[in-house]
Specification:
- This protein has one domain: Rossmann fold, CATH 3.40.50.1000.
- 31% of the residues lie in helices and 17% in strands.
- It has a 6-stranded parallel sheet, sandwiched between helices.
- The longest helix is centred in the middle third of the chain and has 18 residues.
Length: 180
């Protein structure tokens, strides 16, 4: 089935996150394959981000700082591709100890995205760089791709779910098998 919605994680998936808690728009740097991915996909896909942003809850940066960083992501995508960019950013500002329903690996953000775009889980795909991203997707019934940019040995023993796919870049030649 052709997908209608692509749900991305943000930090480490779209943008480089060298020190964690990335929020300064002047330091926003996207991975090169993000540009080639956006250049290669059709604009009929809805695209959103579902991201944990506990730096807000920890007082490291403001919600406005995060929104400005998100705008910079879209600005960079639009400058280097013909794509409109990301349609919506969903975020969780809570720290882990708050035990909210939106912080991944819980699936609150994913369900919110599906509802916002009026999309069934089998019409969506999630791409994230952490197991927690994929857990949120899988528990929502969404096909999930674990993006391992560092080629680290991630223990997938507990994640042999047939819906979890593993890749090391946003290579459209590989990903098109799951988008169309």
């Amino acid at each position: 089935m052709k997908k209608k919605l692509i749900i991305f994680d943000r930090d480490g998936t779209l943008n480089k996150d060298p020190k964690g808690y990335t929020h300064d728009k002047s330091q926003c740097e996207l991975f090169d394959d993000v540009y080639s991915f956006f250049s290669s996909i059709d604009t009929i896909f809805n695209i959103c981000v579902a991201t944990n942003q506990s730096g807000i809850g920890r007082g490291f940066y403001s919600e406005n700082d995060m929104h400005e960083f998100n705008k910079e992501i879209n600005k960079l995508i639009r400058l280097k591709t013909l794509h409109r960019g990301i349609d919506h950013f969903f975020f969780c500002p809570h720290i882990p100890s708050q035990n909210c329903i939106c912080r991944k690996p819980k699936n609150g953000l994913i369900l919110k995205a599906l509802n916002f775009f009026k999309c069934y889980p089998n019409e969506a795909i999630l791409i994230g760089d952490k197991i927690a991203d994929c857990q949120a997707g899988l528990s929502s019934g969404v096909l999930s791709i674990l993006l391992n940019r560092d080629s680290e040995n991630i223990d997938l023993v507990n994640y042999k779910d047939k819906k979890l796919i593993y890749c090391n870049s946003l290579d459209i030649k590989f990903l098109k098998n799951y988008l169309f």
